Amino acid sequence: MKKHITKFLILTIILTAALSVNYLFAAWVGPTQAPPGGNTSTPIHVGSTNQVKDGGLSVNALSVFGGGWFQGGLDVGGKIKVGNDAVAPDAGTIRWTGTDFEGYMGGDWVSLTGAGLVCTSFTYSAWGECQSNNTQTRTVLTSSPSGCVGGNPITTQSCTYVLPMSTQCANAGGSWENTQNTCYFSGTSCLSGWSPNASHSSTIQSTCTGGRGDCWLSPPTCTTADHYRSNIARETCSYSAGYYSQNRGRCKKGPKRTCTAFQTEIGCEKN
C-alpha cells in the first residue's frame, strides 16, 4: 500500500512540473529581430548624439542653445504654435494674443505683423490755414497704444476760405505790409470796409514860415521830421515871429504856431 502511495505522489509531482514548464514555455515569446533591433526606445539623454523622437514631447520649459542640427540652434520642420500666459515676459518673448503675434521689447508688447494693434488715440498739430478748396489739414504727432498702426485719425476738416489780407488789400488798391498786418492806402483816409490801424502812416517833411513885418524876435521858419510806414503820429514843430508895431515903433512878439508833417499814406486794417 505504501508503495502505491509513494508512486502516486512521485507521479503527481512529475506531472505538475511538466505542466508548469509547458505553461512557461507557452507564455514566453522570443526576439523577433536580431540585436539590437526591437529593443526599448532610447531615452532622452544629455549626450551629444542627435536624437529623433517620433512621438509627442511635452515640457514645462525649453531652452535651445546654438550648435545643434544647424548653427542657428533650432530646426523646425513643421509648425510652431505659441500662446499666452500671465507670466511676466523677458525681452525677446513672443506671444499670440488671439488676434495678433507680438514681441516683447523695450518694456512693452509690440505687434510683429501690424495687424490687430490698431491706433485708437492721437495727438495733433494745430490746424493749418484754410485753403481755397475750403479745407484745412493737420498732422498726427503721436498715436497710441504703443506700436500701433492705422486707425482713423482726423486730419482734414471743412472751413470757409477767406482771401488772404494781402490779396484783399491789393484788390482794394492798397499796399500790404505783412510784418505789420497793415494795408497802406494813399492819403489820410481808409477805404470803405477798412479802418485806421493805430497810428500807422507815412509822412514827408513840412517847412512852415510865418510872422509879418521886418522885425523878427525868433526864427520864423521850422521843418518837421518824417517817417515811412511806421506806427508813429504825424510829426510837428513850432515856430513864432515878431512883428513891427507902427503905433509904438518897436518889435512885438507874435503868436506861437505849429507846423505839421504832410501825411502821404494811412495804415488800415480790415473791419
Write down how many β-strands occur, each being a DSSP E stretch of 2 or more residues.
16
Instruction: State the strand order across the main sheet.
Output: 8-9-16-10-13
Q: Give the overall pLDDT as a whole number.
A: 79
> End-to-end span in angstroms?
152 Å
Uncertain residue ranges: none
Q: If helices are DSSP runs of H or I spanning 4 or more residues, what is the number of helices?
A: 2
Question: What are the key terms here?
Answer:
271 residues, mainly beta, 5-stranded antiparallel sheet, 3-stranded antiparallel sheet, 31% strand, rod-shaped
SSE layout and pairings?
Blueprint (H helix, E strand, L loop, with lengths): L1 H26 L66 E3 L4 E5 L2 E4 L9 E4 L10 E3 L2 E5 L11 E3 L6 H7 L3 E3 L4 E5 L7 E11 L2 E3 L11 E3 L6 E2 L4 E10 L4 E11 L1 E9 L1
Antiparallel strand pairs: 1-2, 2-3, 4-6, 5-7, 8-9, 9-16, 10-13, 10-16, 11-12, 14-15
